[in-house]
Amino acid sequence: MSNNKESIEFRKLEHLLVCNYCDVEYKKGTLFKDIELIHRGVSNCNLLDIDTSINLFGKKLDAPLIVAAITGGHSKAEEINKNIAKAVEELNLGMGVGSQRAGLLNSNLWSTYSIVNDYDIPFIMGNLGAVNFIKDGWDEEIIDISVNMINADAMAIHFNPLQEAIQPEGDIDFKGIHILKDIMLNYKQKYKNIPFIAKQVGEGFSKEDAITLKNLGFDGIDVGGSGGTSWAAVEYYRIKDEEFKNFSKKFLEWGIPTAASVLLVKSVFPGTIIATGGIRSGIDMAKSIVIGAHCCGVALPILRAALRSYEEVVKVLEKMIKELKTVMFLTGCDNIESLKKSKYIIKNELKEWIKE
Ligand SMILES: Cc1cc2nc3c(=O)[nH]c(=O)nc-3n(C[C@H](O)[C@H](O)[C@H](O)COP(=O)(O)O)c2cc1C
After folding, report:
1. How far apart are CA 249 and CA 31, in angstroms?
2. Which residues contact 82 (CB under 8 A, 6 or more apart)?
3. Are 139 and 211 in contact, with CB atoms under 8 Å apart?
4. Which of 11, 66, 70 is the best mutation target for the ligand 1 pocket, counting ligand atoms within 8 Å of the beta carbon and taking the most?
5. For the chain, what percent of residues have pLDDT higher than 90?
6. What's the CATH code of the domain at 302?
7. How far is CA 33 from CA 69, 203, 267, 316, in A?
8. CB count, 10 Å around CB of 175?
9. Where are the alpha helices (DSSP H) in the chain?
10. How confident is the model at residue 5 (pLDDT cuts 50, 70, 90)?
C-alpha cells in the first residue's frame, strides 16, 4: 500500500485523465427523471427579470450553483483551478477545491489550491477527508492550516468509504468518526466560526447518516449522490490489476441516487443541503431546489471543460443557469424562494426510495 506524497499526486493526475477520457458515469441515473414539476401555462413572469440569486451561509451567489471539489495538489491542478476560479468569479458562483491533503503534505503545492484567491469568489470551500482525522490524528490545527491555505469560507469534510474500499491503497478504517464533533467545535471556538459541510463523493447519504451528521454538529450536507461520476468506474479504469478491476466492477452502480438522497436527508436534517452528483442541467438544479436543496454542485462536466479553457467552463455554467431560468419561467417562479414552494410530483422508483 503506497500512500506517500508522490503516489498521492500521481493518483490524482490519473483520476483526472480517466475522468476526461472514459465513460465514468452511473447508468442508473440520479432519479430526477422521477420528479415532475408542474407547468404553469400562464407563467405570469418576465423571463428577463428572473432572479436566480441565493444566500449560501451568508454569501450571495448569482445562482444556486457551486463547482464541487475536483482538484489541487499536482502539476496540472493549478491551471484547472485557475480556469474554474476565473469562470466562477465572472458568474459570481461558489467553488470548492479538491482534497487539501496533498497540500498539507507538501507546502510547495499550496499554489495549486491558493490560485483561487487571485479571483473574487463569493464562496470558497476547503476540503479534507473524514478518514484522515481518524487515521492520521488530524485536529483543529490542520483545519486552520487548510482554511488559511485558501481563505476558505466553509470546510467540506468528505466521506468516501466506497472509493477507499476499492482502491488498493485505500484508507479503510472509518470507525471513530464521532471525534469530528469535538474537533469542529474546538476549531470554531479557537479559530473561526465557519460552517462545516459533510460531503459524499458520489454515493449519497442516507437518512440515518443525516441524523449522525446532525448530531456531530455539521452545518450542512452535500449529499454527493449517485447518478453522475461513479468512483467505482473511475477506479475500474485506473487500476491495472485484474483482481481489483473485477472487484470495482461489482460496485459500478452502488449508491443512493442524488434525488433520493436529497429527500432522505431533508426529512431529518435542518441545516443547508447541497445537491451534487449527476447535476447536468438547470432542470436538475430546479428539481433539487424544489425538493429541498439550497444549492447544487457540479464536478465532472466542469473538469472536462476546465481542462480546455476558462471560456469552456463559463459556457457549461451559463447553459445550466439559462436552463434553470427557463424552468423558473415555466413554473411561474421569478425567484428562488418561490421555486422552493413550487408543487411537484414524485413517481416510480424515487417513490420507493422515500418509502424506505
Ligand atoms: C476528478 C475528480 C476529483 C474529485 N476529487 C474530490 C475531492 O478531492 N474531494 C471531494 O470531496 N470530492 C471530490 N470529487 C467528487 C466531486 O466533488 C463530486 O461530489 C462528484 O464527482 C459527483 O459530482 P458529478 O457527478 O457532478 O461529478 C472529485 C470528482 C472528480 C470528477
Report:
1. 22
2. 115, 118, 310
3. no
4. 70
5. 93
6. 3.20.20.70
7. 25, 18, 20, 21
8. 8
9. 5-21, 77-91, 101-105, 111-114, 130-135, 140-150, 161-166, 179-190, 207-216, 231-238, 242-249, 258-266, 282-290, 300-306, 310-330, 336-340, 348-355
10. low
Containing structural domain, residue 27: 5-355
pLDDT at residue 1, as a whole number? 34
Q: How many structural domains are present in the chain?
A: 1
Report the distance separating Cα 233 and Cα 236, nearest Å. Answer: 5
Q: Is the pLDDT of residue 233 over 70?
A: yes
Q: Which grid cell sits at 313?
A: 467552463
Ligand 1 center to 274 CA (angstroms): 13
Ligand 1 site, CB within 6 A: 15-16, 19, 68-71, 98-99, 127, 156, 158, 199, 201-202, 224, 228-229, 276-279, 298-300, 303
Check residue 10 and give its pLDDT.
86
Helices (H) and strands (E) in the chain, counts: 17, 12
Element (H, E) at 66: strand 65-67
**Mean pLDDT over each residue of the chain, to the nearest integer:** 96
Ligand 1 atom with the shortest distance to the CA of 96: 17
Specify whether the backbone of 67 is left (phi greater than 0), alpha (psi in -120 to 50) or beta: beta
Ligand 1 atom at minimum distance from 276 CA: 23
What is the residue whose three cell numbers read 428539481? 287
Q: Are strands 94-96 and 123-129 parallel, antiparallel or unpaired?
A: parallel
- Grid cell of 251 as nine digits: 460496485
Give the count of beta carbons closer than 10 Å to the beta carbon of residue 300. Answer: 21
